[in-house]
Every structure is written in C-alpha cells, then in structure tokens.
User: What shape does this take?
Amino acid sequence: MASSASSQRKRVVLLGATGSIGENTLRVIAAHRDRLELVGIAARGNWPRLAAIAGEFGVRHVGIFDDTAFAAASAEPAAFPPGTRIVGGLEGLNELARLPEADLVLVAVVGTTGLEPALTALSAGKDLALASKEILVLAGKFVIAAARRHAHPGCLRDHVSGRDHQQPESELVHRDHHRGHGAAERVLRGCGGAGHG
Assistant: This one.
C-alpha cells in the first residue's frame, strides 16, 4: 500500500531549496505530503540547511553547486540521512534534473545557473517550473522550444498563472503577488517523468 501511495504523488526535485522561494516550496510540500513528494534538493552552498531538509523530508539525492561547500558536506556524511547521495557542481544539478523518479523539476536558483539544468529536465521529459526571471528573459525561446521538442505528442501545456485548488502541486507554480513570493513564475508541462510512457 505504501508504494502505491507513493506512486500517486507528484515527485519533485527542488533546485534552490534554501532560498526564499525554496523555503516557500517546502512549506507547500509539507502541507500536501499525500500529493507531493520531495525526491531531490540542491543549493549553492548552504549544505547544513540541505542536510536538515533531507532529514525532514527523507530526501536521498542532494546537490551542492559550490565546490568548497560540496567538499565540506562530503566530509560530513553523518550530517545527512543514511544512504544520501551528494553530487556537486553544475553536473550535479544536471543529474538531479534528470533524476529518473522525478516528475517535476522546480528551478529556483539565482540568475542563469539554472538554465542548463532546466534544459536537461526538459530533455529528460520532466515537467519544468521556473522561478528565475533571468532564464525566461535571456533564454525563454530556447526553453520553450526545448519543451515543445521533448514533449509527448499532444501533451505540452504552458501554465502561466492561476491556481487549481484541487491540485496542490499547482501551488508550486502559482506566483502569489499579494504576499510578494511564490514558488515559480512559469511551468512548462511536457507530460514527462517517471509516470509517463
């Protein structure tokens, strides 16, 4: 029964887990554990916070962009749950973006660092949520082209605004102007992920 319940949840990789958008996303996931499951997290360098998140949500895949922080975290494996896999650098973010068990990759890293992982996620058939305006401004046409290129026929949907209260995962991609924060600016759904053929 437990595995069946897990297969019904949308499995999320969160790149930029320790920033304000990342923390807001974590609150949404925590409030909807029956519908959402965090399977991968990454940040630039705050590995102690990543370790705490991994422990709280049972995450086994962790990425750390900064080389010094990656080395420090790798030297403290006991800070993470047993069996945690820690990857580093841009390639580490790309590995998380194509994680086989993930359905949705939410890119909330600062600047354009998330561009390559975003494209990697789309090429792997994942749904992609972007919280970085820089990616859309500087490379939006390439991201959308990649989404169209890798989508299953008839599956591409471009969700820009609005919230479906029957679908908790939509809270991950709704920008809350009243509170001044939100989990993502835009989501490109390519009907990909582990649950799609």
In short: The chain has a mean pLDDT of 79. The longest strand covers residues 36-43.
